[in-house]
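Q: Structure tokens for this one, please.
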Amino acid sequence: MVSLIDEQYEIRVTLSWLPVEGVRYDFEFLWSGEPIVNDAILKRINDYWNSRHRGGVFFTEYAGDRPLQALEQVLATDTPSWFEPIDPDLAWSFYPDMWFPFLKVSKTGVTELDGPRDRAQRETDPDDDYFTVAFHGDTYNFKDADAYSGHGIGFFFVVKRKELSRFLADLAAERAALINQFGLGWEP
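A: Here is the predicted structure, written as tokens:
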């Protein structure tokens, strides 16, 4: 399990192995340890959907999807990046040195973010750069939804580079352990 935590707000990711899809990423959005998403309205029509975490959404690496590449790219290039799986139940995007577009928020200790800066122009340690991580859960996650809509719920998290780098390293280590344990030689 890997988490991004800020006081009572937590985004928790649990990885597991599915024989056909490969690595599955279960996301829970929590406040004080409790799910923010109302589990009673989530789709639970078969074993696949019933296996989701309480109040959670997920995606898999089915058909060559590589969710960690977007995170690696944004950390390496300081340019926005995103990942949407073939089955777009949940997508995530990353915005270096900027708030989610059109959204200005106030956070204690966070200076105004004006967008990506050239690394040479930094006045602070790069580990202190901020990133916005955005999650979009499609309405197909909700019961009685028949198709993907492009509509849905969103969650945002503002995090420093060092925290995001740790998050990536922890996810990559858990993914590698699962592939070594269950899917030696597996690549979708």
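A few notes: The CA atoms of residues 21 and 28 lie 20 Å apart. The chain has a mean pLDDT of 86.
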